[in-house]
């Protein structure tokens, strides 16, 4: 396959490196939704998971492999046969897929983690690449902790992996330790010293521990790397991975500096993909996050506003529209028909195969009845809000009444829940209306969890905003998250706690199943 030398391949690992850092893992359906969104964004390779880590992971990697039409699905494996076999099993029958195999090459990982010397590691890597090549001619090899690997070892490893058949060799800065000039220097050294380097694509995978992930990635690109590994919103282990939107927009915005390099990313799909991932993963985008934060295009100071009014480019190097932020000009009410909703979703860039119109329309009508007018961000929330009704649900809110007011009134709530097939009601007082509601839910579910975090925010702006409540609770030494969205913040609070209780219930179900089946113990990289 001939690859244009100016094209930078975008390899997304939101579903592997990103997902492994989430508090709660995603369902197959949620992963599929993200994978299809990434494909629409124009991502070239999608690392869908780590199939050996659990039967569930293998199942979702397979489902994603089957669903992708354009992007290449990829599965991760350690440099051992059973991991590679699991990847091959996940992709069995597919025409195109990538196996990504890795082993650590730094002295500290070799000595203290793997307890092997470099020679043994190099031979395991070569064997793994050769073994993976029996399944596919698209094999990526990664030298884990390359950023701290002695350069002679790294050169040796890259050459050996390419000779063994690796078509992509990845140089990760696994612990986000290097600085841009240093990391670029490593890539430059590889290009100067490894004789067969032109036989493979050199990739980079930078973590953000010192806030250098994007800078290091771009520095590597300048020195010849032609694959960048990233995640949406920079999700990932610890301080996260390199953010896809940052690298892509830097290459695009500074095109001349990067000597006409380009990616296949459709930049106008960035904002939507970012919001989708944030919603599904329950990881809000920080307001000041470059490119996709809510503040990324806001101009506050008088001088800036004056400048922007005269010429936007005085303070804006990219337009919000170029990454897909849209003007809020949709007027949807309970009188809007399905066609209107479909058109609005199409205008927002969602193709029909990424949602179920009947389901969205039914939920839209409920919301429109409550809110009057529904906005584009509401529709997106309906799409990506993780609804308990799509998962195994034990508890759902049937009715809620609250009395609360001045000092003389003791806040009192009564809550009716559907629990499995039954309905039960409880009342309780509390130190405030939310506390009273939470006390009722605790009595009804029997789940005595400790509330460790409660945040309330607005989805949308002004009087038309919906309240979004996020709660974190501890139950049996594990943390669970729940989210509720409603025009009434007390109801949003109740929905958030109920959604956390459903998460606890689901975990208990899975654990019971695991106890019965026994399970492979690999958890992540
Ligand atoms: O950070 C890392 O080194 C990784 C590898 C598995 C590529 O995630
Ligand atoms: Zn990583």
Report on this model:
There is one protein chain. It is built from 17 helices and 14 strands. With 525 residues, the chain is an alpha/beta fold. The protein has three domains: 9-281, Aldolase class I (TIM Barrel, Alpha-Beta Barrel); 298-390, no CATH class; 393-498, Double Stranded RNA Binding Domain (2-Layer Sandwich). Strands 1-2-3-4-5-6-7-8 form an eight-stranded parallel barrel, surrounded by seven helices. Strands 9-10-11 form a three-stranded antiparallel β-sheet. The protein has a three-stranded antiparallel β-sheet with strand order 12-13-14. The radius of gyration is 25 Å and the shape is globular. The mean pLDDT is 90. Bound molecules: 3-methyl-2-oxobutanoic acid and zinc ion. Residues 17, 172, 174, 205, 207, 237, 241 line the site of zinc ion (ZN).
List keywords for this structure.
single chain, 525 residues, alpha/beta, TIM Barrel, Double Stranded RNA Binding Domain, 3 domains, 8-stranded parallel β-barrel, 3-stranded antiparallel β-sheet, 17 helices, binds 3-methyl-2-oxobutanoic acid, binds zinc ion
Quick overview:
The protein is an alpha/beta fold. Bound molecules: 3-methyl-2-oxobutanoic acid (KIV) and zinc ion (ZN).
Detail the topology: elements first, then pairings.
Blueprint: E1 9-12, H1 14-18, H2 28-41, E2 45-49, H3 55-67, E3 72-78, H4 81-90, E4 98-104, H5 107-114, H6 118-133, E5 139-144, H7 151-164, E6 168-173, H8 180-193, E7 201-206, H9 213-222, E8 227-230, H10 244-253, H11 270-281, H12 302-310, H13 338-347, H14 357-371, H15 376-384, E9 395-403, E10 412-419, E11 422-429, H16 433-445, E12 450-459, E13 466-475, E14 478-486, H17 489-517
Parallel strand pairs: 1-2, 1-8, 2-3, 3-4, 4-5, 5-6, 6-7, 7-8
Antiparallel strand pairs: 9-10, 10-11, 12-13, 13-14
This protein binds 3-methyl-2-oxobutanoic acid (KIV) and zinc ion.
